[in-house]
Each structure stands twice: as C-alpha cells, then as structure tokens.
Amino acid sequence: MSKMLTKFAETLPLPKAVKETFYLRAFGFLKIPMLFMCSPSVISLDDRRTEVKIPLNFRTKNHLGSMYFAVLAAGADCAGGLLAMKLITESGKNIALVFKDFHADFHKRPHSDVHFICEQGSDVKNLVNEAIRTKERVNLPLQIKAYSMKESKTEPVASFILTLSLKLKE
Q1: What CATH number did the domain enclosing 72 receive?
Q2: Residues forming a β-bridge with 164
Q3: Residue 8 domain flag
C-alpha cells in the first residue's frame, strides 16, 4: 500500500513538502488513524534529516492548554518512522519496520505547534543496508528532539529515544 501511495504522491503537481505531507496523512488515515487525527505536516525530509510539525489545536491539547503527551509521542514516532520509511523505500527491498522501545523526557509544556526533528539519516541508511546484508533483525536507537518554535528554537520541550528495529522480509 505504501508503494502505491508513494507513486501517487509523486505524480501530484505540488511542492515536495506538500506531497510528503499528503503521503504521511494518507498513510496515517489508512494505517494509523490516531496519527492522522494529529494532522502532521512534513517540513523537511531528505536522506539525512526529517522535520515534522504537529499543530496545537483542540485535538492535540490537554486540559492545561499544552500539547498532550501522547501526541508528543506520536510526533516522535512519526519523525523517526518517516525517515526510516523513506530510506527503506529507496532501497527497493521489503523491510519490516517497528519501534522496539521508547524513552521520553519531557522538559517543559509546549503551548504552541511542535516540530519533531531526527538527524540520523546516515545511521538509518546504514541500518537498512545491514538488514539487507545480514537478513537478520537489526536495531538502532534514534534520537528525536521536539521544539515549540514560538517558545524556543534552541531548547527542546521533549527528547525521545526510540529503538528502530528492521528486518528484511523474504
């Protein structure tokens, strides 16, 4: 299904970030409805880095007016998973992707849209190649930082470590 979505998104006469956001939301709608409800947008996605934004709105807010911690977790999952999905798709191989574990540190409450950034593209690409070469399950801890850009562009509101686990499907 994701290959079909990727091919369809590529045919759309739109800017790259809009196509990637379309793909992400369509994937969420079809496979992970909770992610779709968060309305993520792709700010940037390349072989080394991904940045995804989730808006603060009535669906993503908690009772204190800040972003609900489960939405922050979904944003971290989205940033790391999208980068891995891109590199897996480029490999042309059928590789299963799952997050094996999850660690979060919440530093302060975000009261505006949150940007999730993962800058380990080269590590993920090496992991994809290792999964293809060894045909065994391989793991990599991904670090994702979350920033509330209106509050501080340098101080994260949360930090995450998700262990990405890949295995070549035969």
Answers
A1: 3.10.129.10
A2: 99, 140
A3: no
